C-alpha cells in the first residue's frame, strides 16, 4: 500500500465466497472484524495461546524492540536511565510520563518517605506465617491485605485517592519485603530510616544487626538502584497482564498487584535467575563449560539465562547488569562462578548453535550473582524483582483504569469437549 493511503487486509473464504476488508491500523487488525467471515456456522476467530501475536492494549509506558535489543521507558533508553537516574526518578517517570525536575523529585521522595511504615496490625498478619514460609507468599498475601487497611483504594476513579495508594504501595514494598526476609531469619524487624534514600533504606532494613547506624558501600547502593531501574517495567509480560486482567473486573490497586506478585512467583517468570545460579554451580569450573555446551546442543540440558520471549538480540538489561556485577565484586570479592558465567557467555555468543537461534544473555544471566554477593538467599531473588516492578505495575494499573478502550478480560476458547448428551441417572452409570 502507498504510504498515506488506507491500508486493508482482504480475506476471502472460498467455501462461501464471502470476502471481508479489514482495516490495518498500527500493524494490527481488530480481531472482532474477523467475525465477518463465518466458518461452519461459527464466526472466525484467532487461536493465540499465550498472546504470542495479539495486542491487548494501547500503552505509552514501555517500548521494546526485541529485534534490535531496545528497551525504553517513556521514550528514554534504559541505559541512560540506569546511568544517570535513581529508582524513584524512574518510578516518577513511569507514573507521570516525564522525568521530574528537582522540586518535583524532592516532593515525590518526601511523599514516599512518609508512607514507608507498615500498619501495626499488619505485623500481626505477618506473625501468623510460619518461619519457613516463602517470602513471595508473604508478599502476595500482605499486599492483598493492604486493601483492608486502605479501603479508599476502591476509589480508583478519583485521581488523588489513586495516587495516594500508588504512593503507599511503592513506599511500603521494601519495608514489607525486608520484614518477610527477617521473619524467615527469626530476626527482629528494622523500621525504615527516614534519613536514607529508597535503596539504602531497603538495605538497612534487611541487613542491620547491632550497629547503631547501618552504612552500605555507595557502590552497593548504586547497584541496587540500577537493578531496580532495570526491573521497573517490561511492557505486557505475564505479571503485568495479570495486574491488568484483575483490574479489569473493577478491582483495587492492591488486589490487582497481589495477582501480579503471584504471577511473578512462577519459575518461568521471576525465578529464572535462581535457575541460572543453580546451573553455574552444577558446571562448577571453567574447564567444564565446553562439555556443558555440548550437552545443551545435544538436548541433554538447558542453558538458563539465555534467550527471551521478546528479545532476539542481546537483552539491553543484561549488558548493564554485567557492568554492575563488576562494581559489586569490587566490594564483596569475586565469586568464582563469575568466570564460569563469562565463559558460558563467550561460547554462547560465538557458537553457531546459539547464534543461529538468536539466543543471547537475558536479564537473569548475571543478576543472581549480584544478589548472592549482596547476601541474599535464593528465595529472596524474586522478591527483589517484585519490589521495583511495583512502580511498573502501578503505572500499568493507572493506564488501564483510565483507558476508555479497556473492558473486562474475557478470552475466547475453542471447545473440545462432548456435544450435548442425555443425563445418565446414578443407577444406570455402572
Description:
The structure is a single chain. The protein is mainly alpha-helical. It folds into two domains: 1-55; 61-401, Orthogonal Bundle (Citrate Synthase, domain 1), CATH 1.10.580. The chain is 49% helix and 6% strand. It has 17 helices and seven strands. The chain has helices spanning 78-84, 87-96, 102-114, 120-127, 135-149, 159-184, 198-207, 218-230, 238-247, 253-264, 272-283, 289-297, 316-332, 337-350, 352-356, 364-373, 381-401, and strands at residues 8-13, 18-23, 38-39, 42-43, 62-65, 70-73, 76-77. β6 (70-73) and β7 (76-77) form a beta hairpin. The mean pLDDT is 93.
Q: What is the subunit arrangement here?
A: single chain
- Helix segment tally: 17
The second-level CATH architecture of the largest domain is Orthogonal Bundle
Number of strands: 7
Low-confidence stretches: none
User: What is CATH's topology name of the largest domain?
Assistant: Citrate Synthase, domain 1
Count of the separate structural domains: 2
Structural class by helix and strand composition: mainly alpha
- What is the ordering of alpha helices and beta strands? EEEEEEEHHHHHHHHHHHHHHHHH
What's the gyration radius in Å?
A: 24 Å
Biggest sheet architecture: 3 strands, antiparallel
Q: What is the distance, rounded to the nearest whole angstrom, between the alpha carbons of the first and last residues? A: 65 Å
User: What would the average pLDDT be, to the nearest integer?
Assistant: 93
- What is the CATH class name of the largest domain? Mainly Alpha
CATH superfamily of the largest domain: Citrate Synthase, domain 1
What percentage of amino acids are in beta strands?
5-15%
Amino acid at each position: 500500500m502507498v504510504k498515506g493511503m488506507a491500508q486493508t487486509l482482504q480475506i476471502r473464504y472460498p467455501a462461501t465466497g464471502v470476502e471481508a476488508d479489514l482495516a490495518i491500523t498500527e500493524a494490527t487488525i481488530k480481531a472482532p472484524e474477523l467475525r465477518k467471515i463465518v466458518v461452519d456456522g461459527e464466526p472466525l476467530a484467532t487461536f493465540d495461546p499465550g498472546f504470542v501475536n495479539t495486542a491487548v492494549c494501547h500503552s505509552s509506558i514501555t517500548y521494546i524492540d526485541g529485534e534490535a535489543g531496545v528497551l525504553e521507558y517513556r521514550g528514554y533508553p534504559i541505559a541512560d536511565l540506569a546511568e544517570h537516574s535513581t529508582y524513584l526518578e524512574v518510578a516518577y517517570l513511569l507514573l507521570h510520563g516525564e522525568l521530574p525536575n528537582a522540586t518535583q523529585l524532592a516532593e515525590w521522595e518526601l511523599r514516599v518517605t512518609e508512607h514507608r511504615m507498615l500498619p501495626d496490625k499488619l505485623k500481626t498478619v505477618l506473625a501468623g506465617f510460619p518461619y519457613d514460609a516463602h517470602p513471595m507468599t508473604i508478599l502476595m498475601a500482605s499486599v492483598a491485605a493492604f486493601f483492608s487497611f486502605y479501603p479508599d483504594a476502591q476509589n480508583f476513579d478519583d485521581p488523588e485517592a489513586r495516587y495516594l495508594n500508588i504512593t503507599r504501595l511503592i513506599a511500603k514494598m521494601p519495608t514489607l519485603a525486608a520484614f518477610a526476609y527477617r521473619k524467615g531469619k527469626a530476626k527482629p524487624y528494622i523500621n525504615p530510616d527516614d534519613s536514607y534514600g529508597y535503596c539504602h533504606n531497603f538495605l538497612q532494613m534487611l541487613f542491620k544487626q547491632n550497629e547503631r547506624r547501618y552504612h552500605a558501600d555507595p557502590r552497593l547502593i548504586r547497584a541496587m538502584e540500577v537493578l531496580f531501574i532495570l526491573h521497573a517495567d517490561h511492557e505486557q509480560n505475564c505479571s503485568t497482564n495479570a495486574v491488568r486482567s484483575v483490574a479489569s473486573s473493577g478491582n483495587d490497586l492492591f488486589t490487582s498487584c497481589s495477582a501480579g506478585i503471584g504471577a511473578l512467583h512462577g519459575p518461568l517468570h521471576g525465578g529464572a535467575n535462581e535457575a541460572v545460579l543453580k546451573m553455574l554451580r552444577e558446571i562448577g569450573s571453567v574447564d567444564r563449560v565446553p562439555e556443558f555446551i555440548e550437552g545443551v546442543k545435544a538436548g541433554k540440558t538447558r542453558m538458563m539465562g539465555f534467550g527471551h520471549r521478546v528479545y532476539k538480540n542481546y537483552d539491553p538489561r543484561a549488558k548493564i547488569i554485567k557492568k554492575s556485577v563488576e562494581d559489586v565484586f569490587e566490594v564483596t570479592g569475586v565469586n568464582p562462578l563469575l568466570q564460569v558465567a563469562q565463559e558460558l557467555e563467550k561460547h554462547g555468543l560465538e557458537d553457531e548453535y546459539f547464534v543461529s537461534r538468536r539466543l543471547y544473555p537475558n536479564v537473569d544471566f548475571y543478576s543472581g550473582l549480584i544478589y548472592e554477593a549482596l547476601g541474599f538467599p535464593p528465595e529472596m531473588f524474586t522478591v527483589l524483582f517484585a519490589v521495583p516492578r511495583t512502580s511498573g505495575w502501578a503505572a500499568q494499573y493507572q493506564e488501564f483504569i483510565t483507558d476508555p478502550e479497556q473492558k473486562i478480560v474475557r478470552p475466547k476458547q475453542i471447545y473440545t469437549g462432548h456435544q450435548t448428551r442425555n443425563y445418565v441417572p446414578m443407577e444406570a452409570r455402572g
